[in-house]
Design brief:
Elements (H helix, E strand, L loop, with lengths): L1 H54 L9 E2 L6 E5 L4 E3 L3 E2 L6 E5 L4 E5 L2 E2 L6 E6 L4 E6 L8 E7 L5 E10 L2 E4 L4 E5 L4 E8 L8 E5 L2 E2 L9 E6 L4 E7 L8 E7 L5 E8 L1 H6 L15 H17 L16
């Protein structure tokens, strides 16, 4: 009986200990959880409010954005390098990609290249936040729209159009040039929009290369190289046989042509040689008629003597 009373006293003591120690801990833990939840809710509300006010402010951006001063049109010469700029502010942990719109081909992601074409690469300029897409040795097929993309949700895109300029050759006075027999034929061919001066320029007459050392003589070429390359073909003492199609063929541009008409003006005026009007074309242009035949007609009229053959008429009133 004595041991039972002792056991009961021990159990009562343990119960009092549990009530005194464990129950207040549970109460305190519940209060702590409520306090933490309430604290976190205040932190979340304040953070959300700050992000919203910052993104709506004209003076600050919490999200990445494109610099509005970035060029959207770029022109490059064939054979040279093209540089397409994409200036991104507040990029943070996002990435910038370049995509070719023609075939929706991903060219670069960040500084990594995702194409086997080694002409493409992205260069990052930290001082200007510029992700520049460089295209080396530009070809005509590279022309088109390129997309600069930021990996936000939703995705932000900026489009740049690349215009590729191809070298062109033109001959002054084309398509028809009229010269007088015995004068000097001076043909000028200009090559524009060329990355480098042409390696050579060939002149053709009737689709045959002109030989400057031929027995005819009097044929020479003067070439001036620069941003615009010009080639002058000079043919002295022009004859009827020099009429026909002349072509300028540079190494880096398409062929340009002109049709030359050599005329024996004196024979036309005197009427001695009607065949002098022959040209390499099937007919004469309207400009030639206005510039040659009309003045010749006036010249003929001024040389006629009307004093011996012109009758005098009088009008009588009936």
């Amino acid at each position: 009986m004595k041991y039972d009373v002792m056991t009961l006293d021990i159990m009562k003591g343990f119960a009092i200990y549990v009530i005194a120690i464990f129950i207040p801990g549970v109460i305190l833990k519940g209060q702590a959880d409520e306090f933490a939840e309430d604290f976190n809710s205040h932190i979340n509300i304040e953070t959300t409010t700050w992000l919203y006010s910052s993104s709506s402010s004209p003076s600050g951006y919490a999200e990445p954005y494109f610099d509005p001063m970035t060029l959207s049109n770029v022109t490059a010469l064939v054979g040279k390098s093209a540089y397409l700029n994409c200036r991104v502010r507040n990029l943070g942990n996002k990435t910038v990609s370049w995509i070719r719109q023609r075939d929706i081909h991903i060219l670069t992601v960040g500084s990594y290249v995702y194409t086997t074409d080694q002409r493409f690469q992205t260069v990052y300029h930290r001082e200007s936040d510029d992700w520049t897409l460089q295209i080396k040795w530009v070809q005509k097929r590279d022309a088109g729209v390129y997309e600069c993309q930021i990996s936000t949700q939703p995705i932000l895109s900026y489009f740049v159009y690349l215009n590729v300029v191809v070298p062109t050759a033109t001959i002054l006075g084309a398509p028809d040039l009229h010269v007088e027999k015995g004068s000097t034929i001076n043909l000028t061919c200009s090559i524009k929009y060329s990355a480098d001066p042409p390696a050579y320029i060939f002149w053709f007459h009737h689709d045959e290369v002109i030989n400057y050392d031929s027995t005819r003589g009097g044929v020479s070429v003067i070439t001036e190289k620069g941003d615009v390359t010009t080639s002058h073909l000079l043919i002295q003492n022009a004859d009827l046989a020099d009429s026909g199609k002349y072509s300028c063929s540079p190494s880096n541009a398409d062929v340009a042509s002109v049709r030359v008409h050599v005329l024996n003006v004196r024979a036309i005026v005197s009427g001695e040689h009607p065949e002098a009007m022959q040209t390499a074309s099937l007919g004469l242009s309207r400009n030639w008629i206005n510039s040659i035949l009309i003045p010749l007609g006036i010249l003929l009229l001024t040389n006629v003597n009307f004093s011996t053959s012109t009758p005098v008429y009088r009008v009588q009133n009936i």
